[in-house]
Every structure is written in C-alpha cells, then in structure tokens.
Design a protein that fits this description.
disordered N terminus, homodimer, two-stranded antiparallel ribbon
Chain lengths: ~600, ~600
C-alpha cells in the first residue's frame, strides 16, 4: 500500500467553500506571479476534486477551473450550458439557412438573386459589427472582464495572415464599389451597399481579432458566446458565397471549353451584373471586374482565418487559467546547416519553377502548356518526395528519442492539432479526387503519370508530416533554463528528490543548465529536419496562394468530374490547403524551437 | 478562510504512486460494489489532481482516470495518442477516397462503374468482419480485456433499431442476390458478390454491436481503435453509396416529370443493371428490383445506427471507470393522465392521417393528391404546434424549478447530446430549404402556405425540444430511494449534517424517502409533458420511416432546386430526421423517469 498526496501548498491563499454548487473566490494573483500560478491552480484542481465527490463527480480539468473560479463570486453552471447551447443553435440555424439561400441562388437564380444573398449577408454583418463594438466597450469598462490571456491563441502567423488577407479583401471591396457605382443607374443599390458594409466589417473585425484574439472573457458570457458564434457564422457565410461566386465565375468563363456550363449558371452570371441591357457608365469598368475576381481567393482565406480565430475565442470564453506555462525558447541557427540550406535551395528552385510555369501556362500553344505542367509537376514531386523521406527519418528519430510527452490536456494545443488535421483534409480531398480521375481514365501520357505520382506522394507527405508535427508538439520541450527562477529550481530539486526516492524519472528532471554545449545528434537532426520542412512548406504555400492552378490548367479533372463538381472540389479544397501550409510553417517553427 | 476537503475515504484501498508518468493500480472492486465505486473513483480524481501538480497539470476527468488506471499496471500515454491519430487518419483517408469514387461514379458512370464502387465496399467489409471476429476472440480469451461496461452506451432503442433495420437490410440483400442471379449470365460477378458480402457483414456486425456496444476495451488498443474506425468508415461508405443509389433511382424514375435527369445519370442507371441488352433469365426479376428499392431507406438507417454505435465504442476504448452512478428508476403511469392520453390521441389521429395520405397521394388525380397533401400538412401542423406549446411550457417549468444540475462531465451524456444535436441538423436542413423555396416562389395556394407554416413550426419545435431534452437530461434526478442502501443512507446523513453546519443545500440533500406521496405539481407537469412529447415523436417517426415523402409529392422542392439537388438534400436529411425522432423518444423516456 503506497499512497501519497504530493505538494498540497497554499490552501490558505484560497477561499473556497465546497458545499454544493457555489464556490467563492477571493483574490488570486494570476497576473502578478505567473511562475507560481501554475502550482496554485493545480492545487485548486485537487481541492475541487477532493470536494467534488460530495455529489459533483468528475469535472474536467478546464471546466472545473471555470466552475470553481469566477470574477463575480457566485456562479452557476446553468448559465454556462445555456450559453453553449444557445450559441450553438444560433450558428447551426444561420449556417443552414444560409446554405439553403446559396443553393437557391445557384440552382434558381431567377427567384433567388445575388441581391437576396447579399442582403442576408448585410443582415449578418451589421449585428456582428455592433456586437464587436459592444464587446470593446464592455471589456474596456470592466477591469475584471479579461483576467487571463491565452498565450497560445492568435499566434503571430494567424494575426499576420489575417491582416494581409484583410487588406486584400479591402482592396477587393474598393474595386467592387467602383464597379457597381458604374452600374448604379440601372442596378439595385444592394450591390453598392454590400461591399461598403463588407469593408466596414473587415476593418472592425481585423481590429477586433488583432487585439482580442487571446482574451478569455469573464463577463457577459451568454452575449459573448452568441456574438462569437454570430461572427463565426458570418465568416462562414462570407466564405461560402465567395467560393460559390468564384466557382460560378470560373464555370461561366472557363479558360478552355464552355461546354459544361448549364443554363441556370449563365442566367446567374448575367443576373449578377444586373440586366443584360445594363451598361457601365464609364469605360474602366471591365478592369475593375477582372481585378476583383483575382482578389477573391484572398477574401476566402481571410474568412477562414477569421473563422478559426473566432472559434478559438469561443472555446476560451469563461476560461480562467491555463496550467500550461509558456516556455521561453530562443531562435538561433547555430547548430544547423544542412536543413536550412537545403530548404533554401528548394525554395529558390520552387520560385523559379513557379515563374516559368505562370508564364508558359498562359500561352495558347498546347505544347508549351504541357511543358509548363510537366515542369511544375516534376519540381513539386522532387520537393514532396524529399519532404516525405526527411519526415519519415524525423519520425524514426522520435521513436528512438526517449523524450517525455507533455502530459496533461492543453485545450489550445488540442484545438491547434484539430485545426491542422481539419485543414489537411482540403489537400487530401483534391489529391484523392485527382488519383481517382487519373486511374479511371487510364494513365496515358507523361503529364497524367506525373500528376498521379504527385498526388500519391502528396497524400503520403501529408500523412507523415501530420504525424511529425503532432508528435513534435506533444513532446516536452528541452529546457534551456538560462532564466531559471528560484521557483523552478526548487521544483527541480524536489523532482530530483522524488526521483531518488522512487527510481522514476519525472518530467521536471529534464531541467538542466546546458548553456553552450553542442546539441546531441538527435536534437540536431530534428532541428535540421524541421528547418527543411518549414522552408519547403513555404514554397508549397506560395504557389497556390499566388495563383498556380494546375488543377484547372490540366483538363483531366474537368473532363472526368463534370466542370461544376470539379470547380467546387478545388475551390473548397485549395483554400484549406493554403491554410494548412501556413499552419504547418508556424507549427514547424515551434517544433524547431522545442527540439 | 473556509476550506474543507470532504469525505476522503478509503485511500488505503488504492495503490497509486504519483511519481512522474507511471501509475500502478491494484484491484479495484468496480464490479463488485457499484454503490461505493462512485465515491472511490472521485477519490481517485482528487488524488490524481493532488498529485498532478508535481509536473502533470490539468488532466481532464476522463483522461486522468484513463491514464491513472490501467489493467496492465504501467501504461504510457504515447501509445494512446498514436492510436487516436492512426485511427483518425484511417477514417479520413478511407472516407475521402470513397467520396472521390462515389463522385466519379455519379459524374462519370462510364469510367467508374458501380462495380468499382462495390468492389471498394467489399474490400472494406471483409477486413472489418475479420477484425470483428479477431476482437471477439481476443476479448473472449483475456479476462481483463473489458474491465468496465459503459451502461449508457448502446441503449436498448439503439440496439433494437439496429436489429430491426439489420433484418430489413438482410431481406434487401436477399432480393438483390435473387435479382442479380437472373442477370448472372451477362453481368459481372461483383454484382452477386456484393450483396452476399454485405449480408455477412450485416449479420456479423449486428451480432458484434449487440454484444459489445458497451465494452470499454483495455487490450490491443491500437488495433481496436483502428478496427472501430474501419467499421465506422465502412458504414459511412455504405450509407453514402445507398443514399447515392437511392437518389439516382429517384432521379431516373421520378414519380412526376423526368425533365431534369441529365444524360450521365441515365447512363449510370442503365449501367447499374448491366448492359441494355442484358435480360433477366426469369420473369419475377422486376418484382425483386422494385422490392429492394423500397428497402433502401432501412439500409440507410442501419448504417447510421451502426456508425453511431461504432463511434461511441471508439470513444470508450481504454476508458476504465465512469463516475456517474446509474440511478434506478421505475416506470409507472400512476401520476400522469393528460399527457399520455393526449399523446395517444395524436398518435392514433396521425396513423389515420398517414393511411389516408398514402392511399390518396398515389392517386393519379391532381386534386386528390393535393387534398392528401393538405390533410397531411394540417395534421402535422396541429401536432407540431401542440408539441411546441407544450415544450415551451416545460422549459418555463424548468426555469421555475430549483432542481440542481447534475454537475460533472459525463462523457457518454455529452456524446448523446452531441448525437441528438447533430441528428436534428437533418430535419433543420430539409425545413430551411423548404422555407427558402416557398418564400422565393411566392406563397400562392393553400398547399404551399401550409407547407411553409409546417416548416417554420418544425424549426421552432426542434429548437425548443432540443432545449427541453438537454435541460431534462442534465438535471439531478429525483431519487426515489426505496432501495436505499446502507451506504447512500450514510451519505444522506452526512449531507444533512453538512447542510446544517454550513447552511448550503447539497445535492445529496434531495435523497428523501417519498414512497407513495403524490407528486408535486411541477414534477407531475413535467412528466405529463414528456409523455405527450414521447408519443408525438413516435408518430413523427412513423410517417417518414414508413414511406411518407411529401417532399417529393409536393413538386415545389424539385421545381425550385433542380431535381438532383433536392433529391440529395432530402435523402441525406430525412434519414437523420428519422434517427433524430427515435433518439428523442428514448431521451424523452429518460426525462420522464428523471422528472
């Protein structure tokens, strides 16, 4: 019989009463002393659970904290479940209604015009903007509105991407306004109102998410949850209509043959520019029209980014503490060479290929077009094959390495991994659809064979890269404790003591003071691999993000799945693929630092 | 300063060491003494969390248990995350590849024939069956393979439904075999092999899920997780192909006009019966063909049921204990009258309407058809309106009632609520699509107005019913402790003591010995409401389950969204709607017992 309860300190600092549902919470110095906060909190956990079995069984770590501690003092679980449910229903209803509207506008453009859809979007955007302002005012007024900021939420790449794509969206809106001002004399005013409202929405939302993406809000939880779900719904609807618009645009004016576009789609396209008799009042109109369609993909990305951030914020509402202490890592390239150099070579070669491809594929000669495709496929195949090999090596090293897994549930980390896995589905979908198409039509010709090989390799690469990133993120980081505080030293001592008495290694035991020693070969190799993968992912991001669309330049997809279906698959899948690559770059950077 | 740790008993019964990652666990009498198990377990939680802050912060309730206790003694988190990831990837890849194949078969029936799709399904079913037999052998051999059964998983309605729909699927397979034996001389052998394999798969899977749906498996976790995800993927693919087949069948031979069916779909339909020159070798063929198409909806339901059960099993792999004690409730109708009687009236009236509708709507006269639709809509509207009103009243009573919420995270309960919410999306989708169609075409004529009203009412009913059920399930049950054990009496005494000393009511305080007193009015009303809703949901289940399809009898949907789109929406949405109604009936029964 061997039972020990370790380290229950500081009970006196907490004022908790465990009778029934009500908990009271006096001052907790989360902000003032982040080092000790982690320990305090796990003490609360222990306390909550010890008390819990008086009738309240099995709270999860995160929720127990959010139930136990609240800024207002007494807090009932009722309102929480109520607000989750309410906001969930709000999202569900808005999105389903939106789907019906968009489907109607696609399949019956005469009865559901784009005006109706845009009116619906305006009706969503205005309340969202109003709520964001309300939120700003609320959190500004109350001191205790945001007790804690989730350091993992809203990382810099997400916020940076949001601003970048937001700016592109704004330019798109300006072009749209300019275009529809030209049609103002004969088209509906909704056409001008929509881009104006969208521009305001984009501005306010970007500002809002930039500042508040990390907030774990404590006040007005019901309204905040509903507001966040409303903005998630709005972004999803903007995404859906943008994808539909772009797909219809490509279907009506495809680069090659127009044979597949159905009657209703043509009607839609003409309806979207008003009546056929309606002419623009100034000559530069067509330039604006061409220009804004090029900016659609950025708007699609913007909506995806904003959706992801709103969802993370929604998950964080009411969260008080996170027992995951952020570790400080320094970025330096001291010990690595081959990885970054190899990655740079791939990056530069990829950029060169991209330029050649974009120039040649626009050519009218069929032969030049095929040559461009061949070059594109070969360059990508080499990149992806290298990445796959290197990643497999990395996974093997993880197997060899006996580094501990970071135990404990980190909600933001799980969310992050979920987003990574989810986003990879876009690329998977495009690849599998390509594989089926090529195999079914029979592999004849080099271009098709290369296309097939690239798709198969991409599937393999996505699988192993996901495994590599997830494994990498889940490992305990190697601490380079130059800034070791008194507290963590105490913990380390304690851990060593435990180890001696029990013969088992604790995670804290890995805290060592290794300031300038060269890295062991495994860590060095992992750093090389991460650096190489990071740079390779950048080039795989650049190509689709800046307009390479071999899926349309190669006619196999459109031939096999009729045009509409293929356009839908690619236009839904590719933006997720782009999101996935950006997310991978950020995650690989973290893996690099941790290794 | 007021801190108490209540009721930490029995530490000596547990052999836990908290140093680092490894936990050892000796015998725990979960099975032998269910009454005390709940308390023991929450004690473990307390201990785990108390120990956790030595380095492992913030485990959730469920995961902490699954990490802390394992049958084998030492257990590493590594394999768990690996098996989650691996099985997740398996599901993702199989389903996406399947999607690509099915899309290919729809949009390019010449290159991807139904033979290819069926071959793919056979290639999924055989490994699934092999795995299920392997699982059976494994758990049979090892005593400690299943330490704990989740009493909430695989409830009787789910298993009953599975068997019912499984039998129908088997009959369908027999019909298919009989049909394709007639074509054997000129069609591919895959056509016969597929229903044979599917019949074996259905038999084995029904047997497997009937016996093992509640298992929380401890051995072979990686293989088990992957096996369960494989069977989930297989069921999803069977569901997808069945929906596609049925939709194509309806598109090619619609009851009304055939104007919308496209060229490729016609090709597909003829291809699915072999070449056009291929003739059946015996005369009864066409009867079998007609018959098996009527059984498709049951096969679709079967796949949904099996998917839900496989998913719940997957979630339960490695789970050792549940801190939610099952409460014993007795079913009796002593105190209620109005609810059940009202419900029965609705049920009988509904059945009568259903019979009249089915007879009249098959008529060729347009007027008779419209009359049938009118009757159907009115009967449903009255039912749904009554349900909405009654449910709102129920929600108000919940607000008035000061019954405690069952705190603590119950994973099975959350899963259950998730399934309920998810399944309701099917009905939401059909309703919202109908609303948009009717509004866009303009409401002219009684039938359309009724259709619109019914759809709006259905949306409202779904919303309030979901709220009512979720609130009802989350309340602490009223204990009727006729079988109060010594242990619970002790707890009650303890609770009363606490109450006296602290002035706060504990949930345990509600344990009273109210054997035959009449119920208080709030509880009585809640029981009446649940009973009424239960019976009303049964009639709303019967109508679509046994073939009422006003969505196709009323031409508005097919007119507005072209035929293919509408068929897809209805064929995906309705089976979920049927699942939702069955799930609601079961949940309302539980709410009735708890009230």
């Amino acid at each position: 019989m061997d039972f020990r309860v370790l380290h229950i300190h500081d009970f006196n600092e907490l004022n908790l009463s465990f009778n029934g549902l009500f908990f009271q919470h006096s001052k907790m110095s989360v902000k003032d002393d982040p080092e000790s906060a982690g320990v305090q909190i796990s003490t609360v956990h222990a306390g909550v659970h010890a008390g819990a079995h008086a009738g309240l069984h099995g709270l999860t770590g995160q929720r127990s904290a959010s139930i136990a501690l609240s800024s207002g003092g007494v807090w009932q679980d009722k309102s929480s479940s109520w607000s989750w449910m309410l906001s969930g229903f709000l999202l569900m209803n808005v999105v389903i209604l939106g789907c019906a509207l968009v489907s109607g506008s696609v399949f019956n453009a005469l009865q559901v015009t784009s005006d109706h859809v845009q009116f619906f979007l305006i009706a969503l955007m205005i309340p969202t903007v109003v709520w964001m302002i309300f939120y700003k005012v609320c959190t500004f007024r109350e001191d205790e509105a945001v007790l804690y900021k989730d350091v993992h939420a809203g990382p810099v790449w997400l916020r940076g991407g949001l601003v970048l794509f937001g700016v592109c969206s704004l330019i798109m809106d300006v072009f749209k306004i300019a275009l529809y001002v030209g049609y103002a004399h004969c088209d509906s005013p909704v056409k001008i109102a929509f881009p104006v409202v969208q521009a305001i929405f984009t501005l306010v939302q970007t500002y809002f998410l930039w500042l508040h993406a990390r907030d774990c809000v404590q006040v007005q939880r019901i309204i905040t949850r509903c507001g966040l779900m409303l903005s998630l719904a709005t972004n999803l609807m903007v995404w859906m209509t943008a994808v539909t618009d772009e797909s219809l645009h490509q279907t009506v004016y495809p680069s090659g043959n127009v044979s597949h576009s159905s009657h209703s789609l043509t009607v839609r396209a003409s309806a979207s520019n008003g009546d056929n008799n309606c002419e623009c009042s100034y000559p530069a109109c067509s330039i604006f029209e061409d220009a804004y369609y090029y900016l659609y993909p950025f708007n699609i990305e913007y909506s995806l980014f904003a959706s992801a951030m709103a969802y993370v914020m929604w998950k964080n509402v009411g969260r008080v503490v996170d027992d995951h202490q952020p570790h400080e890592h320094r970025f330096h390239l001291r010990d690595v060479l081959v990885g970054p150099v190899g990655g740079l070579v791939v990056l530069v070669a990829g950029l060169a290929t991209f330029v050649v491809y974009e120039v040649d594929v626009a050519s009218d000669e069929q032969q030049k077009k095929e040559a461009a495709l061949t070059i594109y496929y070969i360059a990508n195949m080499v990149t992806v094959a290298l990445m796959t090999g290197v990643t497999v090596a990395g996974c093997v090293i993880y197997r060899l390495e006996r580094r501990e897994h970071a135990l404990g549930k980190n909600p933001t980390r799980s969310l992050d991994v979920g987003l990574l896995m989810g986003a990879s589905m876009g690329q998977f979908t495009v690849s599998y659809f390509t594989i089926v198409a090529v195999l079914a039509l029979g592999v004849d010709g080099t271009v098709n064979a290369l296309n097939l090989a690239l798709s198969v390799l991409t599937v393999a690469e996505l699988l192993v890269q996901n495994v590599f990133i997830i494994e990498g993120l889940r490992r305990e980081p190697h601490h380079e404790s130059r800034r070791a505080s008194v507290f963590s030293n105490l913990l380390a001592l304690q851990a060593q003591e435990d180890r001696r008495s029990s013969g088992v290694l604790t995670p804290r035991g890995s805290i060592t003071v290794t300031a300038h020693k060269p890295l062991p070969w495994k860590r060095k190799l992992l750093k090389e691999i991460s650096a190489f993968l990071l740079l390779s992912n950048i080039i795989l991001w650049i190509m689709p993000a800046f307009g390479a669309r071999p899926q349309f330049d190669n006619p196999i997809g459109t031939d096999f799945y009729q045009f509409n279906m293929w356009v839908a698959v690619v236009n839904v899948g590719l933006p997720f693929g782009i999101f996935y690559r950006m997310h991978s770059v950020a995650s690989l950077f973290e893996v690099y630092l941790k290794s």
